[in-house]
Amino acid sequence: MNKTIIVSNRLPLQISIEQDQLNVTPSVGGLATGMKSVHADGNGLWVGWTGITDEELDADLKKEVDAKVKDVKCKAVGLTQDDIDQFYLGFSNRTLWPLFHYFLEYTEFEDSQWEAYKRVNQKFAEVVLDTIEDGDTVWIHDYQLLLLPQLIKDVKPEVTIGFFLHIPFPSYEIFRTFPWREELLTGMLGADLIGFHTYDYERHFLSSVKRILRLDVNFNEITYHDRIVKVDSFPMGIDYNKFHDAALEHDNPNTEISELQKRIDTHLNEDGDKKLILSIDRLDYTKGIPNRIRAFEYFLNKHPEYKEKVRLVMLAVPSRSGVPQYQLLKKETDELVGRINGEFSTVSWTPIWYFYRSLPFENLIDLYTSSDIALITPVRDGMNLVAKEYVATRTKQDGVLILSEMAGAAKEMNEALLINPNSFEDFASALKKALTMPLEEQNNRMKILQKRLKRYDVEKWADEFFKTLEATNKLQDVVVSK
Ligand code: GDG
């Protein structure tokens, strides 16, 4: 029986070792939900890193990890601390991440890190090749594994390979600066289907393939050696029902009220017309956090009548703190929040509530359901699922989403207030518009957004990708038999 193998940098598991006791718990992120049906399928397997380096495991513990991981239909790729430093914190997050998000000034081109990237992609290939057979299907995820499709295809031409990129693919003018551009593109072209969140990323990729590799591109099909590689866009959805149902449960008077919710309620009750503006992101320079804080300051100065009437609740989730730019961003954010709170606070009001931590899912729902406005303003973002989650939790169809044009999600969310995240004027007028928007208009916009997100949820996304992958496979049969 043929099987499907999912490959991502991290396995959808949390593994911890406490007092020599090994605990393995599945993590319930969006990707794991989308992959559920594929993975749960009789012969599904997920390949990736466990989050524990080889150095942390002696032979016995490694055996135990492998066994427990196998129980949940996963297979571990062993990575050393040096791999993590060079491949993950290094090439993936200091080269590919900034370059693909148009942060050329942060992009490092280091030969040694490129070597590590190739070495680790090879490690992933070896684990996959160890279990794969002709007729199997592989679905590879994201920018850490761009070389993996070709590494598998070279050895096993009879397997079907799909690749999905979760971040933007930059324009040709940016991509051409990359020293190993041919290798990276040919690495991706090992796949039979390459998926992006938006049509723009797709067309940027096709343009680089045409101009750098000089290959024939016919609409969205690339002729590469004797194969056809299909390229398409699949905007990733969320687990809509999970968020919507959690919000309904939150509204249920019998549900226990969290400490966070009590604090929020106190704030709202102090003065009936206080409004909450929410922002949630990983603390990443692509998310536009300092600019958002400055724009909020600009708004308070431009519209002083909103002082003491609005509060920005900002959740910044710690991320990649081993990379210097992220440490600098943390410092900048702390200073900005401190300065603005120092400048504007009164005895009864702090303009910004700032949380630098990850919150449990229930608290995320507290924040989504309590906020009148979501202010999601990345300077560049592949998709942005937070924007979609906010919409899914608005069970009364009220609330306003202000969304950056630079997020992939903006392409499907025209009913949000779309802004250029570099314009303080755009911020201020969108905030004013959101704060004064009649309920009926909020309802009308929310209804359309919800309908769309409910229909195209994360399972549908995975389904569409898979169906297209299967069809691509049939297309190959036609090409081969011609
Ligand atoms: C990459 C791309 C693309 C956040 N804080 C907490 C928490 N979260 C959850 C959110 C959401 C997820 O994390 C963040 O997803 P995003 O899509 O917003 O952003 P990235 O992490 O940058 O993801 C992005 C995505 O991949 C998928 O392709 O959309 O463009 O950059 O689901 O809910 N969850 C919990 N506590 C938190 O404090 N439990």
From TrEMBL:
Keyword Glycosyltransferase: yes
Protein name, entry field: Alpha,alpha-trehalose-phosphate synthase
Top-rank taxon, per record: Bacteria
Assigned keywords, A-Z: Glycosyltransferase, Transferase
Oligomer status and interactors: Homotetramer.
Biological or metabolic pathway of the protein: Glycan biosynthesis; trehalose biosynthesis
Family: Belongs to the glycosyltransferase 20 family. In the C-terminal section; belongs to the trehalose phosphatase family.
Reaction equations catalysed: D-glucose 6-phosphate + UDP-alpha-D-glucose = alpha,alpha-trehalose 6-phosphate + UDP + H(+)
Enzyme Commission number(s) of this protein: 2.4.1.15
EC supergroup of this enzyme: transferase
Coiled coil (residue ranges): none
